[in-house]
């Protein structure tokens, strides 16, 4: 079963310094039927103006993943971490028993655009932790590249405290890859740029365009293909319980 959420169905806003869209209920936006997908609680697609950002605020018992798409993002937290991340960089914060942090665009001239994802951890009350990792953007081509996972074994993969893996991929027009899923698990798809054709195990084809998403259950096979009218498609796939 695949439920498609067009980009236009998201809650979008413009505060001047912050422009974005929420794929799930978040902050002042609440939709009772749209609060989660398995352990996934948040997907915010944010653009922050130069020299602006979020002041110090607390989190607890949440896995928070920030993927920078363009520009620079500065993170500082109560654990003593200070880091600036750009495209190819991933920030993972396990809030656990509690952490306070800030997120800020340090540039004088350029916006920063990022995806921020929140997931419930497998266990509450973890010791708070933070890490940054990076991936080779060239390695995204034609494959599903893991950037965060509970099975993180490589330095380039952030360690998540939940039974899941976040992949990024880029596909040229007409090229495809297959994804085999274990029974009883879910898949979340999000098209960052371009258009993606998704074929399920019944051979039904669904087209996802830029910033569309799909929440998929009870499908053990997906064929993913860059749309032939799009030079390159950049997307995220999340395997989760």
> CATH top level of the domain at 2-134?
Mainly Beta
Identify low-pLDDT runs.
none
Strand fraction equals over 45%
- Per DSSP, the total helix count is 0
Task: Kindly state the number of beta strands.
Answer: 22
Radius of gyration: 17 Å
Topology as a string of helices (H) and strands (E): EEEEEEEEEEEEEEEEEEEEEE
Q: Report the biggest beta sheet as strand number plus sense, adding barrel if it closes.
A: 7 strands, mixed
CATH superfamily of the domain at 2-134: Jelly Rolls
Could you please describe the fold and organization of this structure?
Its cofactor is Fe cation. The chain has strands spanning 2-5, 11-14, 18-22, 40-48, 53-59, 63-70, 73-77, 82-85, 89-94, 99-104, 112-119, 129-134, 145-149, 158-159, 165-172, 176-180, 186-193, 196-199, 205-208, 213-217, 221-226, 232-240. The chain has 241 residues and is mainly β. It has a domain at 2-134: Jelly Rolls (Sandwich), CATH 2.60.120. A hairpin with a 5-residue loop joins strand 18 (196-199) and strand 19. The protein is globular. The model has no long low-confidence stretch (mean pLDDT 95).
Short recap of the structure:
The chain has no helices and 22 strands. The chain has 241 residues and is mainly beta.
What is the secondary structure topology, with strand pairs?
Blueprint: E1 2-5, E2 11-14, E3 18-22, E4 40-48, E5 53-59, E6 63-70, E7 73-77, E8 82-85, E9 89-94, E10 99-104, E11 112-119, E12 129-134, E13 145-149, E14 158-159, E15 165-172, E16 176-180, E17 186-193, E18 196-199, E19 205-208, E20 213-217, E21 221-226, E22 232-240
